[in-house]
Structures are given as C-alpha cells and as structure tokens.
Write a structure and sequence with these properties.
Keywords: ATP-binding, Nucleotide-binding
Number of helices: 16
Order of helices and strands: HHHHEHEHEHEEEHHHHHEHHEHHEE
Structural class: alpha/beta
Radius of gyration: 26 Å
CATH superfamily of one domain: P-loop containing nucleotide triphosphate hydrolases
GO molecular function: ATP binding; ATP hydrolysis activity
Distance between the termini: 71 Å
Strand content: 5-15%
CATH architecture of one domain: 3-Layer(aba) Sandwich
Protein name: Clp ATPase C-terminal domain-containing protein
Pfam families: AAA, ClpB_D2-small
Helix content: 40-55%
Largest sheet: 5 strands, parallel
C-alpha cells in the first residue's frame, strides 16, 4: 500500500457524502419513522419501498416497518378488479375491456399467492403460471402492465426484450442473466412480489430460431422456472459467483407479450374457414363469407392456443402461459386522446417542459391530424411522440425568448387540406402573448 504521509489517510480531507436511497429521498434521525433508525442494508431498502408505496395509497404515514408491511398486505388482500380499473382507466386509452381482464388476472394471482402463504398445499391450488398478451405494435401491452402491476399494485417491475436473448451456451444475454438479476433484487427486498415482463416473445418461434435444435431456443430455458413454484436455483454453470442465486418463483408474476404480426389473416382465418367448411348448406356459405370479410382485429379476437402453435411457438411454453388477453389496435380517435384529452396525455406531459408561466395547448384539429399520420405509419401510437417533440421544442425556444409569452398553441385548423407529406410549418405553431 502506498504511503500517505503523517496525518494524511486515504480519502482524508474529502467531505463524507451520505448516499440517498433510490428515489432521492434522504432519511435522517429527525425524519426517519420510529423504530426504523437501526434499519440497514436490505431492511432499510425494504422500509423505503413500503413507506413510499403506502404513502401513495393512504393519507396516514406508517411509522414502523411492521406497520408499513401490515398496511401493504391489507391493501393487496382487499384490492378488487374494479379498484384497479377505476385507478388506471384515466391513463389507459382504447383498451378498457383488456384492462379489466388484466386486472382480473392480477386479483386471481394475488388470491392464489395469499392462499399459498397461508399454508394451503400447492397441489390443492390451481396453476396460474403466466399472463400472455397478444397485440399489435403500440397497442399498449407494456403500458397496461406497468400501470396495473407497478404503478398501482407497487410490484417490482423487470422489463426484458427477448429479441436480444439467446439460448444458454450462445454468446450474449441469456434467460439466466435476467433471472439472476431478479433473484438478487428479491434478496434485497424481502417478501416483495416481482413482475417479470418478457416483451417480443413472438420473436422466438421455431421457424425464426437461430438454430434448428430445440435446446438453443431461449424459451426452453423458461420451462422449469415457470413450472416450479418455490425456490429455483439458477444453474451454477452459468453463474459468476461461488453460490447459486436463488429465485423464489412463488413471488414472481410472469407476463409475456408479443405482436404476432400477420397471425390473423394467415392463420386464424384459415382455421375458421376450415371449421366453417365442415358445415353443409347455406349456413356454411354464409359463415365463409363472414370470415372472408373479417379484418385483422376481428380475427385477432378469436386467437387460440392452436393458432399460436401454428405460428411457431413452443407447445411446451404455451402450456405454461395459457391465460391469453388479445389487445386490439388503437383507432384514430384513441390515438387523438393520447395526444390531447386525458389527464396523462402528451399535451399534459410536454406542458411540463415549457418555460414557467407558459401553457401548452394542442387543439383538437392538431390532435386528429397527428393521430391520422400516426395510424398511417407502421409505428402506431408511438409515432405521436416523435411528431410532437420537434413542434414543442420549437415553441419552447420561441417562448423563452419572449417575456410576454403566455400560451403556446399547436393548431392545424387552417391547414386541414395540406399537401400530402407536409407535417407542419410556422403557421401551425402559435405563440400567444400577454396584452399590454
């Protein structure tokens, strides 16, 4: 060790900075609840997590770890699907029925979770392995789950894009890497529930697999932890430590989501046609005619497990993720409400970025125009954000230079019949000023 000289220890002279907990909330002896002053490590992290959650749900601030846990458990035991829908419907647009189905699954999963905690034998309980969301790009799969499970119920949320996941033994991120992170998070937050959200699961079909060998499909590495309820030891050969990480799967709520592009017209329609052809007479002709006239959204509403298997998904995996919720694509009016018209609209969120004292307004005509352009694109509702950003940036810059600015307005009412491809010009961006 290098000498530091008399009176000069390593780090001497530097002010000691106390690290704040995640979320930026610092607790000292004057602000820490009674009984929490000695909480350290995972206990302190768990305290902060419970306190923040219960402060958001109740007007009464818990004073101890035990009180916070008790309030949290009481909330989760008593929550209903109606409670979840009432709290989340102001944020979720165009998917009210689908939101309710996700909320019902959450309540059913919680009922099973608490039944198991109370000592009910595993064999006496039904299997609720995973929730499976099927919906086109930008239909709200990720957003609904985050609102229900993370924002409202307060579960830990792990989001993974499986498009970049490889099978064990291949170079790159693997299933065990994701499970290991979740296991270590569990060890920090004792008795907390984790949501493992696996996006783009449809990218790993047997027809799209990098290898013809089933063992290299990443989904096969999920079969055991999905089936097992209890402590699952992540295989040591893929571990970077001496001891295996342990994942308590009874505290894991699994969610899988995929777009399954083209499944309606290519697979569901064919199955419905085959079923209708088994009927004879005029009834069969009428059914075939109706099926031929169905669009992609109507066909998606009739998706079955067999259709997903025909698409190329592993039957062994689908047997463990069989609670399917099919989300419909958002319509133009729904996307317009995302732009302006809800408490969580882009208009409200971008308004937070305007200079102080300047209000942002997106007119109905602008919302409809942006929604129409977004629907026509391949990105759907996600396109609205990239369309609004340059407009707001330009208005905000003009407002900063004008001390009399009071309202920044995006208005397309004068340009409804604009040439195709023209998004905006300076006449669309109106800066209202305070009259002298």
């Amino acid at each position: 060790m290098a000498r530091t000289g008399r009176g000069h220890r390593l780090g001497a002279g530097r002010p000691h900075r106390r690290k704040e907990p995640r979320g930026g909330i610092a607790m000292n002896e004057s602000t820490r609840p009674n009984g929490a002053a000695r909480a350290e490590g995972p206990q302190a992290t768990k305290l902060m997590h419970s306190l923040i959650f219960m402060c958001n749900k109740s007007n009464r601030v818990p004073r101890t770890i035990e009180e916070a846990d008790k309030q949290r458990l009481a909330f989760l035991k008593s929550v209903t699907a109606d409670d979840i829908v009432a709290a989340c419907k102001q944020y979720v647009v165009g998917q009210e029925d689908e939101l309710r189905r996700v909320a019902e699954y959450a309540c059913l999963w919680l009922a099973r979770y608490f039944a198991q905690k109370s000592g009910t034998p595993e064999n006496d309980l039904p299997t609720l392995n995973a929730l499976h969301l099927v919906g086109s790009t930008a239909s709200g799969k990720t957003f609904i789950c985050r609102q229900v499970f993370h924002e409202y119920l307060g579960f830990n949320y792990h989001h993974t894009s499986t498009a970049s996941i490889t099978g064990e033994g291949w170079k790159g991120a693997s299933i065990s890497n994701v499970l290991r992170r979740a296991a270590r998070e569990q060890s920090r937050l004792e008795a907390e529930i984790s949501v493992l959200f696996w996006d783009e699961i449809d990218k790993h079909t047997q027809r799209n697999s990098r290898s013809p060998e089933l063992s290299f499909n990443p989904l096969t590495d999920l079969l055991v932890p999905l089936e097992k309820t209890g402590v699952y030891a992540i295989p040591e050969q893929y571990n970077d430590s001496d001891e295996p990480d342990l994942l308590d799967t009874s505290r894991c709520l699994w969610v899988f989501a995929g777009a399954y592009e083209g499944i309606g017209g290519r697979i569901v329609r064919k199955r419905l046609m085959d079923e209708a052809s088994e009927t004879y007479g005029l009834l069969a002709d009428a059914q075939i005619k109706d099926i031929a006239g169905m669009d992609e959204e109507e066909l998606r509403e009739r998706i079955t497990i067999d259709d997903l298997i025909e698409y190329g998904m592993l039957p062994e995996f689908l047997g463990r993720a069989s609670y399917i919720v099919a989300l419909k694509s958002l319509k133009q009016d729904d996307v317009a409400r995302i732009v302006c018209g809800t408490p969580h609209s882009l208009e409200q969120r971008y308004g937070m970025l305007m200079p102080k004292g300047v209000e942002l307004q997106v007119t109905d005509s602008a919302g409809r125009h942006i929604a129409r352009r977004a629907i026509d694109s391949s990105l759907g509702a996600r396109m609205t954000n990239s369309m609004l950003a340059p407009m707001v940036a330009r208005l905000a810059e003009r407002a900063r230079k004008d001390e009399r600015a009071k309202r920044a307005r995006i208005d397309f009412s004068r340009k409804e019949n604009r040439p195709e491809g023209l998004l905006l010009d300076e006449t669309d961006l109106v800066l209202e000023r305070i009259a002298l």
